[in-house]
Design a protein that fits this description.
By secondary structure, the chain is α/β, with parallel strands linked by helices. It is built from 14 helices and 13 strands. Helix content is about 40%, strand content about 25%. It starts with a helix and ends with a helix. The structure holds adenosine-5'-diphosphate and magnesium ion.
């Protein structure tokens, strides 16, 4: 028979948005030494956001965001969504563009009517428009060509392709962002880089509290990701996580859990993806976050139905409260 206190405990858990699939794991949660979080989709939203903007002299951040958002208007790319959202947040009004083109794997380009940026527009005799002259014919008639400007947004690979050198200030900005694991895209007016935008993982608001509450209970928090060391370090520093495992291949995630267990630690793993399933199975307490894939849910001992990482701490407290009574 199921002890009464256990039955009460699981129904209490259910009321708190936790689906307990394995009662023994639920009981062990009160003794956890280490909680390992998957990064993407668990601690971060799995999206990118614009975290920094740089400009050349004479341009404001709003100028750069406005034009970049205009050119990205029709792109589905995650980078485009981040730029449009950043522009929306600033409340700038976005000019219309013509002749939008996705430059596969490099960026986007479009033609903007007059007023593209603060400085007077020089007639377009750029290397960029020469080498891509076919596309210009479709962007409009030649009569008022001087009032139009080709504007592009793209990564370092677009600059290389167009043989454009960013000025010193933009290069320094890009180096610094890169060292923090952030991606950089540039805004080009004709063949001049006039701004740069740094993009980073969007950290979920709940993650800060989730980690702090576990640490305040004396539990070590670690983060596991397939992303680069730079990206991992930036997110871990932001969240106050001491231990990170970066550049971990999907098939090696469970090895990291085993390593911790070999150090005599009782380990929980929190994840959402198919990639996380073996690690969830390996962990003493496997915790799937609610939005997770079926495979993650099937591999977990507890499912956090509300998709809230703060529920990990609540789970530990609930386990401690319930099972103390049994002894
Ligand atoms: P990934 O899927 O790795 O982002 P893509 O082929 O989509 O690869 O893009 C490669 C790079 O090209 C991006 O990292 C970025 O630098 C640039 N890029 C692609 N699309 C865009 C876009 N819409 N806006 C800005 N930069 C872009
Ligand atoms: Mg994930």
């Amino acid at each position: 028979a199921v002890p009464l206190v256990v039955a009460i405990n699981t129904s209490m858990a259910a009321r708190n948005g936790m689906l307990v699939r394995d009662r023994i794991a639920m009981e062990q949660a009160r003794n956890l030494d280490t909680v390992v979080f998957d990064k993407t989709g668990t601690l971060t939203a799995g999206e990118q956001g614009v975290v920094d903007v740089a400009t050349v002299d004479g341009w404001t951040e709003d100028d750069v965001l406005t034009l970049a958002a205009a050119v990205e208007g029709d792109s589905e790319h995650m980078i485009a969504q981040a730029i449009r959202e950043a522009a929306r947040d600033r409340g700038v009004s976005i000019p219309d563009v013509r002749g939008f083109e996705a430059l596969e794997g490099r960026g986007v380009r479009a033609t903007v009517e007059t007023g593209a940026g603060p400085a007077p527009i020089s007639p377009s005799t750029s290397a960029a428009s020469e080498s891509e002259s076919e596309s210009e014919t479709e962007t409009g008639a030649a009569d008022d060509e001087e009032d139009r400007t080709i504007v592009s947004v793209g990564g370092p690979n677009l600059l290389r392709h167009l043989e454009v050198e960013p000025d010193e200030s933009l290069s320094a900005f890009a180096d610094e962002a890169g060292s923090r694991g952030q991606g950089v895209v540039y805004l080009l007016r004709e063949d001049e880089a006039v701004g740069a935008l740094a993009l980073a993982d969007v950290i979920r608001e709940e993650s800060y509290e989730a980690i702090e509450s576990l640490q305040s209970m004396g539990i070590e928090v670690a983060m596991l990701t397939g992303d680069t060391e730079d990206v991992a370090r930036a997110v871990a520093e932001e969240l106050g996580i001491d231990t990170t495992f970066a550049e971990v291949l999907p098939e090696d995630k469970d090895e990291k859990i085993l390593e911790l267990q070999r150090q005599n630690k009782l380990v929980a793993m929190v994840g959402d993806g198919v990639n996380d399933a073996p690690a969830l199975t390996r962990a003493d307490v496997g915790i799937a976050i609610g939005s997770g894939t079926d495979v993650a849910v099937e591999s977990a001992d507890v499912v956090l139905v509300e998709n809230d990482p703060r529920d990990v701490g609540r789970l530990v407290r609930l386990s401690a409260k319930s099972y103390r009574k049994m002894q």
